[in-house]
Amino acid sequence: QRRVHGEKSKMQNYPNQGYPNQGPPPQQYPPQQYPPQQYHPQQPSPQGYQPLPPQASYGNPQSMQGAPVTYIAPGMPMQTMQLPLIMGLPYPENPMQALERLQDAWVAQKLNWKEIVAPCLVQNKYKIYGAKSKKEGKLKPDKNDKLFKCQEHSTCCCRLMFFPDCREFTMDVDFKQPVYNPSTGKLKSNWLPFLHLKRDFTCTIGCFFRPVMEVTCVYNGMHEKIGYVENPWGCLNNTFHIHHRSQAEPIFTVKGSIFQCGLYCRCPCELCKEVKFHIGDPKTKAEHVGQITKTWAGCLKDILNTDNFGVTFPQVSNWEIKALLLACTVFMDYLYFEEKPDKGHNQQLSLIHI
User: Fold this and answer.
1) Three-state secondary structure readout of 95-149
2) Rounded CA gap, 71 and 53, in Å?
3) Mean of the pLDDT values across residues 36-47?
4) How many helices (H) and strands (E) would you count in the chain?
């Protein structure tokens, strides 16, 4: 016992001598006390700014860690910051958010080789992208920001027998929304119904029975009319009226002069490459708050009567108004840049038929 007691005293005085694999004893702390931690003060928010709560995740919940915070200044519009990433891809947003953040858009008619044989047997298809501004002020499509696709639904008899300003059609606009697949751990594109465009048959003769197209939101089980686009009679201008909801007075007008070479000639020269339609505000009597421009699509696409449009939206944040302007762009292509069913040339003067 005396010998064992002596070895224990040596271990207490010299804990590391004779025991190379044994380290120093763990440091003891009094109850309810812990080792000091380095304090990082939280950076205060800018004066007058209020952080918004993070948006709900549509994909992997763990991927929302470190999502950026958006601030709103009093009396100023919301500052749009870079969207968070999910699995290295852009954060999936709903179509309303996509339209609200858009300042410019690009509407491209899809090329279809069947139009070489029988143009009237082909239903139109469109793709809608976000747009970038060039140095010259012109727009170009952002291929990485594909948002919507449009599919026409009409009968072959209507396309073959009636003029574009008379025939009826419907169009479905679908939104591209990525969905997280937990089995593969990747995002896949899921096309969801967003808008439904309806244009009824009208016997348009001069200023009588002018064409109208209704726009209905069908996203997430909704069926709500957000407005309609009207094509009134005009002598010197090709005119459209944008009506929000059921308002009798138009909220915006779209006008394009008939004295533009691009309406009658599809040559790639500077005078014929563009046809401009100015967006006006009737309330403020401003004639140019935005613009819709029909641009030359190239030799091959021009032969197949495939059109591209650049849209510069007015300074509005309401997604419904932007959706109506996109519907007006598609409606414009049907009225002024589609082919006649009986002839091979473009229907450019459908507005002044008598």
Assistant:
1) HHHHHHHCCEEEEEECCCHHHHCCHHHCCCEEEEEEEEECCCCCEEEEEEEEEEE
2) 10
3) 46
4) 5, 16
State residue 312 phi and psi, 5-degree precision.
-110, 110
Cα separations in angstroms, 115 against 70, 122, 338, 339, 341: 48, 6, 12, 11, 12
DSSP symbol at 70:
-
Opening angle at CA 212, ends 211 and 213, nearest 5: 130
Q: How far is CA 351 from the centre of its chain?
A: 30
Give the H/E segment covering residue 86: strand 85-86
Residues 6+ apart with CB under 8 A from 153: 123, 169, 170, 171, 172
- Cα–Cα distances in angstroms (integers) from residue 351 to residues 110, 204, 327, in the given order: 25, 9, 18
Nearest to 354 by CA among 233, 258, 230: 233
| C-beta separation of 212 from 199 below 8 A | yes
What pTM did the predictor assign?
A: 0.70
Quick check: helix, strand or coil at residue 54? coil
| CA 93 – CA 194 distance, rounded (Å) | 13
Half-sphere exposure of 107 (CA within 13 A, CB side): 26
Whose structure tokens read 């059109």?
307
Residue 346 is given by DSSP the state B
Express each pLDDT in 251-309 by its tens digit. 999 999 999 998 888 777 888 889 999 999 999 999 999 999 999 877 766 666 678 99
**Mean pLDDT (whole number) for 112-128:** 76
